[in-house]
Amino acid sequence: MPKPDKDDVERLSRGLATRAKIGSRRIGHRLTRKERQLFEAARRQGFLKIPVTGIRPNVVNIYRLWCAAEGKAFMIKGGALP
Predict the structure, then answer these.
(1) CA 13, 18, 27: angle at the middle one, nearest 5?
(2) How far apart are the first and last CA of the chain?
(3) Where are the alpha helices (DSSP H) in the chain?
(4) CB of 33 within 8 A of CB of 2?
(5) Domain that holds residue 46
(6) Residue 46's Cα: distance from chain center in Å?
(7) Domain membership flag for residue 1
(8) What are phi and psi for residue 37, nearest 5 degrees?
(9) What SS3 state is found at 34?
(10) In this structure, is the dihedral angle defined by the CA atoms of residues 69, 73, 79 and 82, taken in order, positive or negative?
(11) Is residue 28, in this structure, part of any structural domain at all?
């Protein structure tokens, strides 16, 4: 799989086609409004904080791709992992 671009990750999180074809139909990527807030906070803070109630794996997938695009370490903190 090619290195993701930040624009492609953003498009993938909104359910749109990407230029680099980085997504997979078997893995969820589209984010809901609440998941998008978690993702935006993770981008600002540098780590993904998972709430106690848990989340769908979509946020984790998108944040993992975002970290790869940025060249940063992938870090998760918090509650129940999906």
Answers:
(1) 55
(2) 23
(3) 6-13, 33-45, 57-70
(4) no
(5) 6-78
(6) 12
(7) no
(8) -65, -40
(9) helix
(10) positive
(11) yes
